[in-house]
Design brief:
The chain is an alpha+beta fold. The chain has five helices and five strands, in the order H-E-H-E-H-E-H-E-H-E.
Length: 112
Amino acid sequence: MKRNDITGILTICRKSGKLIVGMDEVKNSCRCGKAVGVIVTCDLAKNSRSEISQVCFAEGVQMYVTTLDMEDIGYALGKMYGVMAVTDPGFMNAMKKNLKKAALDSDSLECE
């Protein structure tokens, strides 16, 4: 799957109302049990990455890292975001192949 494929799925996911964006909204969706998976961009700040990682771990939600940066997400969704939650298992499965599972102690996320 290429970059355009991931951004295309994210765009469709957003238009169908199955994508939650922004740190606070994503944390709430994890705590409420709505999030199937959380996606973070490769250029997300270390503190933000740590914060969302802790919430995902506590709530049992898998966090994935994409090689896309916030600018790429902004191009696809119309606004730059670094944290997104997918609420539909079908969309999450379509993207899983191109996403890396994030390790809790992963400090270095590199953009391509």
